[in-house]
Design a protein that fits this description.
This protein is mostly helical. The chain has 6 helices and 4 strands; from the N terminus they run H-E-E-H-H-E-E-H-H-H. 75% of the residues lie in helices and 5% in strands. Strand 1 (30-32) and strand 2 form a beta hairpin. Helix 1 packs parallel to helix 3, helix 2 crosses helix 6 and helix 5 (130-167) packs antiparallel against helix 6. The model has no long low-confidence stretch (mean pLDDT 91).
Length: 209
């Protein structure tokens, strides 16, 4: 990669970082749902990964994770302890597992999205719709990577504590996890797919010109 391309990629990465941070501190980034937050911050992570590659995608995901850590530490809700080791809500507190939940799925968002995008492009070689389908698949895959990993890690690392804090449950906790995946994760994935197609195609046109 020549110096001009490196500079361009660094500038674009800085723009995506700024966008993630701005979203994190506005109502459009983290949407309160009472005991936890929904989010669309994974969308710039996905788009950045598609345009800049998996390394930048992982970096942008890390920035997303850091904003989540800050948000849950400084503006906690009932289950923020599963995302921050610095939070204690009543008898429940975060630990090293909180950092794993907060960071690892977010870092993987962009990496998964990039390889899904490239894989679908290759599989649909010759199709006029391949770019659109690949972008949609990448958006959905990146979003579901976040939701599925976060919610399942919460169950395995904080199952009982999360069930008590979120719903006052001691049994049927995974049913709550499945409900959140269906009610929040699937709509988030659909929105991510649509936004990824619309925004990335527009950016591709600008970059070509």
């Amino acid at each position: 990669m020549n110096t001009g391309n490196k500079t361009r990629d660094m500038v674009l990465a800085a723009i995506f970082v700024a966008l993630i941070i701005i979203m994190a501190f506005t109502p459009f980034g983290y949407i309160p749902l009472g005991f936890m937050n929904a989010t669309i911050i994974h969308v710039p992570v996905i788009i950045g990964a598609i345009i800049l590659g998996p390394k930048y995608g992982g970096f942008l995901g890390m920035i997303f994770g850091l904003t989540s850590l800050w948000k849950n530490t400084n503006m906690p809700n009932a289950t923020s302890f599963v995302f921050s080791p610095f939070v204690k809500m009543g008898e429940y507190g975060g630990n090293l597992g909180s950092l794993i939940i907060c960071m690892v799925p977010r870092i993987l968002i962009g990496i998964v999205a990039y390889y899904v995008f490239r894989g679908v492009l290759k599989a649909l070689k010759g199709s006029k719709m391949r770019t659109t389908v690949a972008l949609a698949a990448a958006g959905v895959a990146g979003s579901l990577t976040n939701t599925l990993l976060v919610m399942n890690l919460i169950y395995f690392l904080f199952g009982k504590e999360y069930g008590q804090a979120a719903k006052g449950l001691t049994e049927g906790i995974y049913s709550v996890i499945i409900g959140i995946i269906c009610m929040n994760g699937i709509p988030e994935a659909i929105v991510a797919g649509i936004l990824t197609v619309a925004i990335t195609q527009a950016l591709f046109k600008v970059m070509r010109n």
